[in-house]
What we know:
20% strand
Amino acid sequence: MSEAPDGLRIVRVANFVTPVSGGLRTALRHLGEGYLAAGHQPVLVVPGPRAADEWTSQGRVVTLPGRPVPGSGGYRVLTDRRAVARTLAALAPDRLEVSDRTTLRWTGAWARANGVRSAMVSHESATGLLGTWGVPAGTARSLADRLNARTAAAYDTVLCTTAWAAAEFERIGATNLARAPLGVDLEQLHPDRHDPAVRARHAEPGQLLLVLCSRLSPEKKPERALEALAVLRRRDRLPAVLAVAGAGPLRRRLEARAAELRLPVRFLGHLGGRSEVAALLAAADVAIAPGPVETFGLAALEALACGTPVAVSRSSALPPIVGPAGAAAADSGVGFADAVRELLGRPAAERRAAARSRAEGFGWDAAVAGFLTAQRVPLPAGRRRAAP
Length: 388
């Protein structure tokens, strides 16, 4: 593959990206592929164990040595500012798109000093994240407001994927907000991926198959899926089982908890192939998305694309995204059990059709057009109407 001969060079810098980092990695790949297809030159700069420079389906990917984050299960961050600045100078971007408003916020000043238009993509709620770390609500709000004010001042655009994500910037009066959705692969993730052999591998005839596709880390609250399973089996006497796809620092603790409660849970680890993920999601009766600080929730949208309804945290951005194809749950095991029961109360054909229909409103073409428009990047003439 060779570099595109024209178009703008869009350099994207992101932290917390690993081979198993789920939603962010997926979003970066699809956006890069879309930028390339639109005639631009996407370059992704990420941390890794060693330096690398390669061409991929999403364009050029430059890996710089990054420091591991203790207890994160593999995340790394770019801590050498001089190395990052040298890389940016060598790449000479026309646009700079950044995904990490903490350790990478300084890149906004670099862009301004070098006459480069910049955007920070808000992938999470700072207020919500601080809350999951145990910071009291009032303190979390105050700290988040200060962080977000600095972010808004540092970049030309703050790009949010949902109104929920934008709300904390609107709270501080930020005037440079833009909105663009993320998307889902509607071809690879499809109800037709249902495979009776896959379902039989995880559930016996007559059992209900629940699925959790998530990074197993504290902010995702994966333990609520296990708690919901316990309630469904003991309170409601439902023959439910749970398959967990994902890796992370909480896996051993969750395995011990499942054994302690004698719950039928299968921990599958990270599923590397998208076809494996699609087959698992299409085989499930209900997916569970317990993360309370999800700003978009690609895993939930992927389940919907496979025709599987989703129980989502009512504290997250997901309720208006899944709409009638899902159910909003109180943030507890009982809450998620109630949401699962609500979904199972609908006729199977009806709930699966509603799930797929909802996902079809979130194609990656619209997401790419929205991101490019927000950053004042020209769209191909035939795709100008695709921007939301």
